[in-house]
Design goal:
Carbamate kinase, alpha/beta, VC0802-like, eight-stranded mixed sheet, five-stranded antiparallel sheet, binds aspartic acid, 15 strands
């Protein structure tokens, strides 16, 4: 059994939904289908979910919402016209409109994009529509109730041959509609795959898989065919993301691979994300490279730091006191540096520094702002000699000054800290070191 989730660009119009239907028909194992709300059809277009949020903002400030809601209605009428002109979409739209006039919760309203899209697709395919509110449960504290979800989903779907399920929401412990965070249909798909024991979780989008580097920096970067969950986590932390973060856990835990596919190019095999990586003949030593700007380094120096018990612990307890997480702590015998995301330091830097001075009495403290981190990631790097040398030589030849070097002991990543201004240069230098292409 395959669980397939189709994202907003795959379900943005009647024409796109017809492509989705062709994909579903092409493999009868595609039994459970999860859909997003209609996304953008072209640059500058609106996502239906954004319009729904906007509509709720109008309600909150008592501004007339008709114009926005008309746009939403238009989107669904257009889809309905293409898929099945006899489907009574107006019945569903008028139910929502009448609730708008009486007061409606934010989560209920913004979940309607997925709800209506799933109804339309289920009708077109002749599949059963199974509402997410019957199968996805949240606890009182707002977190997902995985066990209950698994039990109820199994009960509800065990005798269902084929179903279309709206993504993005479920039901709260109080019985109200509750959504995941934005992009949460990925989580719904992952839950359906893991709870129902799918052989693969297909995630259909508008790209043919995960790319080795940011296409805004590298022209036509190579696609990644296989990647492990661990590698994916390292790269997506650095901003290379195609999936909601929380979508990983359910399938990873159940050892189910994710296959990222492209609805507009269904013949492309896409990227397989799994716990283990398959070997492929065009494997490179690195799987990908990604980077992020806007970090700060706090660098401390103290003579004989290495012989002082608990020195780093004292520094870290100050960060804990101010609720600040950190990325890396490269250290030497008399030095320690802490790399922190600027957003986490917001407004707290001076207080942290004076507390460090008071508690740790370093000989010097230096603060380096505007630092970018670049992660070179690859399972193949482990136990293979010379990769780090190639990375550093490439960066040196490109004139990039390294402020921090860190290699995790798992050896699947090398992280370097450089100046924000050097980020693009560094990504290019590393990418082309391992891809000797002339097409730059
Ligand atoms: N429609 C929702 C959003 O735009 C959820 C999703 O598409 O995954 O965030």
């Amino acid at each position: 059994m395959i669980a397939s989730k189709f994202g907003g660009t795959s379900t943005s119009s009647g024409e796109q939904l017809k492509k989705v239907a062709d994909i579903i028909h092409a493999d009868k194992n595609r039994q459970f289908i999860v859909v997003s709300a209609p996304g953008k059809r072209f640059d500058g277009d609106n996502k239906v979910t954004d319009l729904l949020y906007l509509c709720h903002a109008h309600l909150t400030y008592s501004v007339p919402f008709d114009q926005v809601f008309n746009m939403i209605e238009e989107r669904f009428r257009d889809i309905s016209k293409v898929l099945d002109p006899n489907f009574d979409i107006d019945l569903y739209l008028s139910t929502i409109r009448s609730k708008l006039n009486k007061g409606i919760s934010l989560d209920y309203l913004v979940s309607r994009g997925e709800y209506l899209n799933a109804l339309l697709l289920a009708n077109y395919l002749g599949f059963e529509f199974v509402d997410a509110k019957e199968i996805i449960y949240f606890k009182m504290d707002g977190s997902l109730d995985y066990e209950k979800t698994r039990k109820l989903m199994n009960e509800r779907l065990k005798n269902v041959k084929n179903a279309v399920i709206p993504g993005f929401y479920g039901v709260s412990a109080l019985g109200d509609i509750k959504t995941f965070s934005r992009g949460g249909s990925d989580i719904t798909g992952s839950l359906v795959a893991s709870c129902m024991g799918a052989s693969v979780y297909e995630n259909w989008t508008d790209v043919s898989g995960f790319l080795m580097a940011d296409p805004r920096i590298i022209k036509n970067p190579k696609k990644i065919r296989y990647i492990t969950y661990r590698e994916l986590r390292e790269l997506s932390y650095m901003g290379a993301s195609v999936l909601h973060d929380e979508a990983i856990y359910p399938v990873r835990n159940a050892n189910i691979p994710i296959n990222i596919r492209n609805t507009n190019h269904p013949d492309d095999p896409g990227t397989i994300i799994a716990n283990e990586r398959e070997k492929s003949e065009d494997d490179l030593p690195i799987t990908g490279v990604a980077g992020r700007k806007d970090f700060t380094i706090i660098a401390l120096q103290k003579f004989y730091m290495n012989s002082e018990v608990g020195y780093v612990r004292r520094i870290l307890s100050i960060l804990e006191m101010y609720d600040i997480t950190f990325e890396n702590i490269p250290s030497g015998i008399d030095t320690v540096s802490i790399v922190i995301d600027n957003a986490k330091l917001n407004g707290k830097l001076e207080k942290v520094l004076s507390e460090i001075e008071r508690t740790c009495a370093p000989d010097s403290i230096n603060v380096y702002k505007n630092i970018a981190l670049v992660a070179v990631v690859g399972q193949n790097m482990a136990f293979s000699i010379g990769i780090a040398g190639r990375v550093f030589t490439a960066l040196g030849n490109a004139g990039v000054n390294l402020r921090v070097i860190d290699q995790g002991s798992s050896e699947i990543n090398i992280i370097v800290g450089i100046s924000d201004d050097d980020l693009e240069k560094a990504i290019k230098a590393i990418y082309y070191e391992f891809n000797k292409t002339t097409d730059r």
